[in-house]
Each structure stands twice: as structure tokens, then as C-alpha cells.
From TrEMBL:
Organism: Oreochromis niloticus (Nile tilapia)
Gene3D superfamilies xref list: 1.25.40.420, Kelch-type beta propeller, Potassium Channel Kv1.1, Chain A
Start and end residues of each BTB domain: 25-91
Keywords on record: Kelch repeat, Repeat
Annotated protein name in UniProt: BTB domain-containing protein
Residue ranges that the Swiss-Prot or TrEMBL entry lists as coiled coil: none
Length: 448
């Protein structure tokens, strides 16, 4: 893979041709047994390391400069970048190149390598990349790798790298409120797997780490059949006591007063990685502005209504770039062409650009960073028109109209196309379906 940047210096192919021909070179960079003829001024533009190396040299006539700590292959890539502004980054060389660039303070290359590694994150390598960022201080990549571990924990624990975590790292991860696991049993089994990898060294940490597991989120059967009966826990009196107390407190057994799961630290649900939102609609015979969020881990709905927001029904909703968009709709009096954006962090709404048409009963979907609003009813007729919203420029633009007028239709995306099925055309309910190709701006009918 080739990564390119646009550095502040404008590298010229002429300079690179002169370097390759060995003309006007005034220094030689030597790495191990390999020599690289260069122009000092070009390398000074690339990184302050070379500027300091050349200007602070005690011997003004010195031409050969030995650079320790990196390979000739990496130096060749860095020099190429100094002259061309581009560098070839691969899975095989990314880490070594990043370390070499960091050593030479070549920050443009460091950023390119970090971006590349961030795109390559997967369950097999995220722990290694995260731990590597402790050697090279790379806060953005470190944060990205860490969040990948937290968000993909169920897959990460299956990989060999998970077993290389330190006890401090394991404790920090297991304690996270936002650790993304469907079942708390996954957390317990990951802990046992980590300890069993080197039991002689790690058994001493069992009590401290088990306290990070939300034992109260497990069933009584699992606690008794799998946890209490395990060899590691069974030989640890502190752990046995912890689990017994959790059973008595949370499951309400024995004579202890029952404690609410939300109050007990071992039974508090972790933050949901995803939630289901129910926005607006009809309630009690009128449109409503209510918003409820469903936390599937806690199995409960939470009201997150903004009481300053107008009621809205028959609208479309889409999620894009961290925001929820409410598109069109109806409030018993007005058919809307307005679009509202909900910020999940602040729980506040704000207005974005309106659509070209008023649309209630509208079909809404997201594809390639655009929100599509298809058909609907404008208060007079069902619509065949369609449009799409680009959030970067806050603008709606019309696309080709559908073959049919459709309100109340279902739409979705598949393989970079938008499919819309059924609906109502003002006279009859439809069984027809069609798809939109954004590359050709065309709708095509498919089998009904």
C-alpha cells in the first residue's frame, strides 16, 4: 500500500533525479554498510533531526554521517519520502518504519504509519499495537487500539495476544463500564483463561481480578456450577466468600436483605455498546415528542425526551456519523420538509437544511455517507421524487425520481444500492419494488 502526504515542503522530481544521479550531493548518510548520497537542504526540510545533525556538527567539512539504530531499508524509505513526499507502507514494514521515523523525528511519516496501523486493527493485532504505543508515545494510535480492544473484547480474548497482557492491563480492561460483552460470563472466562496461561505467576491476582467481574449479572446456576466449582476458585477462600456473598446479596437468598442490582457494584450492568431508540410517533391520540432508549443489557427503557422539541409522527429516522436524524413527518397540522438532528451526547436537537419537498410516511436510509429520503406524502399527493443529504455541506440535492409514487414503503441498502419495496400510491397498496444505483443515478424495477 502506498501512502502519500502533502508536506509543507514541495518536493521536486528534479531534486530526486539529481540525488539518484549523485549530482550536487553534499553529504552521505551511512547506515550499517550502506551509503546514501543526499542533499543536506532536502533532508533538513524533512525533519529537524537532520537539521540538528548537519548544523551542530563540529567539523564543517564532514560529509559522512553514521546513523545508528535503524536498518538501511528504513533509511531508504525515509530519504525517498524526503524527496518525493510519498512512502510505501505495508503490514510488514509499518512498525519498523514507524520506530525509525520516530527516532528521526520525521513526524509526517509517523502520522502516515499511525493512520495505516489504525486501519489495520483487528482482534489478532490490537493488543500488540496498543502495547507498542507504550514504547513509542503515540497517543492517538494508543487510544484507537485501546477502544478497539474494549469494543471487540469477545473476539480479542480468543487470540494469543490477549494472554500477553499485564495484570494491570487486565484489571483496567475488566473494570471498564463500557466493556462490550453480551454476557458477563465472557469476562469471567477470559479472566480464568489469562490466569491459566501462567498459573504459577498469576494465581495470586485472582481475588483482585475477580472483583472486577460483575458476578451479579450471571445466573445462579452458572455461579454454582461453573464458578464455585472451578479448581482455581475452589481453592481460594477469599474468592469463595466473594461469590457466596454475591449470591446471597443479589439473588436474595438466605436471610440477607435483597439489594437492587443497580446499587450493587457486582450487579451493575455495563454500559451498552449499542442502544435502540424509539423516537416520536403517536401516543394517546396525538403525535408525541417522546424519545425512549432501550438498554438490552439491563432490559429496560430510559426516557431521554427533550421537552422543547415539537411532536412528530410518520417521519423517517437515520443514524449517521454519531447523530440521529429525524426526517420529515407530520404533527396533525403541518407536513414537514424540516430535518432535525439529535446529538446523543448532549441529548439536544438542532435544525439542519430542509428537504426540497414535504414528506411524511417517508422512506429513509443511509448509503456511503448520505441520507436518502424517498417518496412519502406531501399533504396532497404521494411522491415519486427522492433526494439525498450530505452532512459535510448541510445540503439536500434531488436524485432521479422513482418509477412509482410511494408512501409507507420499506427501503434498505444492499451492495451499494438502495432498494425500496411496496408502499401506497394514493390508490392502491403496491407490490412493486425497485433499486437505485447512485453511480448512474438510475432506478431499476425488479421482480414484484
Amino acid at each position: 500500500m502506498s501512502e502519500e502526504s502533502q508536506p509543507p515542503y514541495k518536493s521536486s522530481s528534479v531534486y530526486n533525479e539529481l540525488r539518484l544521479e549523485g549530482q550536487f550531493c553534499d553529504a552521505i548518510i551511512k547506515v550499517e554498510d550502506v551509503e546514501f548520497p543526499v542533499h543536506k537542504i532536502i533532508l533538513c526540510n524533512c525533519t529537524p533531526y537532520f537539521r540538528a545533525l548537519f548544523t551542530h556538527c563540529s567539523d564543517p567539512d564532514k560529509q559522512v554521517f553514521n546513523i545508528p539504530g535503524l536498518s538501511p531499508q528504513m533509511m531508504a524509505l525515509i530519504i525517498d519520502f524526503a524527496y518525493t513526499g510519498s512512502v510505501s507502507i505495508t503490514e510488514e514494514n509499518a512498525v519498523e518504519l514507524l520506530m525509525a521515523a520516530d527516532q528521526l523525528n520525521a513526524m509526517d511519516i509517523v502520522k502516515l504509519c499511525c493512520d495505516f496501523l489504525g486501519e489495520q486493527l483487528c482482534p489478532e493485532n490490537c493488543v500488540g499495537i496498543w502495547q507498542f504505543t507504550k514504547v513509542c508515545l503515540l497517543p492517538e494510535l494508543r487510544a484507537k487500539a485501546y477502544h478497539y480492544i474494549i469494543n471487540n473484547f469477545e473476539q480479542v480474548v480468543l487470540e494469543e495476544e490477549f494472554l500477553q497482557l499485564t495484570v494491570e492491563e487486565v484489571a483496567d480492561i475488566l473494570d471498564r463500564e463500557d466493556l462490550n460483552v453480551q454476557l458477563e460470563t465472557t469476562v469471567y472466562e477470559a479472566l480464568i483463561k489469562w490466569i491459566s496461561h501462567v498459573p504459577a505467576e498469576r494465581e495470586q491476582h485472582l481475588t483482585a481480578l475477580l472483583s472486577k467481574v460483575r458476578l451479579g449479572l450471571m445466573t445462579l446456576d452458572y455461579l454454582t456450577d461453573n464458578v464455585l466449582s472451578s479448581e482455581l476458585v475452589g481453592t481460594n477462600s477469599e474468592c469463595q466468600s466473594m461469590i457466596t456473598n454475591a449470591i446471597l446479596d443479589i439473588h436474595g437468598l438466605g436471610n440477607r436483605p435483597f439489594m437492587s442490582g443497580f446499587c450493587h457494584p457486582l450487579a451493575r450492568p455495563r454500559l451498552p455498546h449499542s442502544i435502540l431508540l424509539a423516537i416520536g410517533g403517536w401516543s394517546g391520540g396525538d403525535p408525541t415528542n417522546d424519545i425512549e432508549a432501550y438498554d438490552y443489557r439491563a432490559n429496560c427503557w430510559v426516557n431521554v425526551t427533550d421537552n422543547f422539541e415539537r411532536p412528530r409522527a410518520y417521519h423517517g429516522v437515520a443514524f449517521l456519523n454519531g447523530y440521529v436524524y429525524s426526517v420529515g413527518g407530520f404533527d396533525r397540522v403541518e407536513h414537514f420538509n424540516s430535518v432535525r438532528r439529535f446529538d446523543l451526547t448532549t441529548r439536544t436537537w438542532n435544525e439542519v437544511a430542509p428537504m426540497h419537498s414535504r414528506r411524511c410516511y417517508v422512506s429513509v436510509t443511509v448509503l456511503n455517507g448520505f441520507i436518502y429520503a424517498l417518496g412519502g406524502y406531501d399533504g396532497h399527493v404521494q411522491l415519486s421524487s427522492a433526494e439525498r443529504y450530505q452532512p459535510e455541506i448541510n445540503q439536500w440535492s434531488l436524485i432521479a425520481p422513482m418509477h412509482e409514487q410511494r408512501s409507507d414503503a420499506s427501503c434498505t441498502t444492499l451492495y451499494s444500492r438502495i432498494y425500496i419495496c411496496g408502499g401506497f400510491n394514493g390508490n392502491e397498496c403496491l407490490q412493486t419494488a425497485e433499486y437505485f444505483n447512485p453511480e448512474t443515478n438510475q432506478w431499476t424495477m425488479i421482480s414484484p
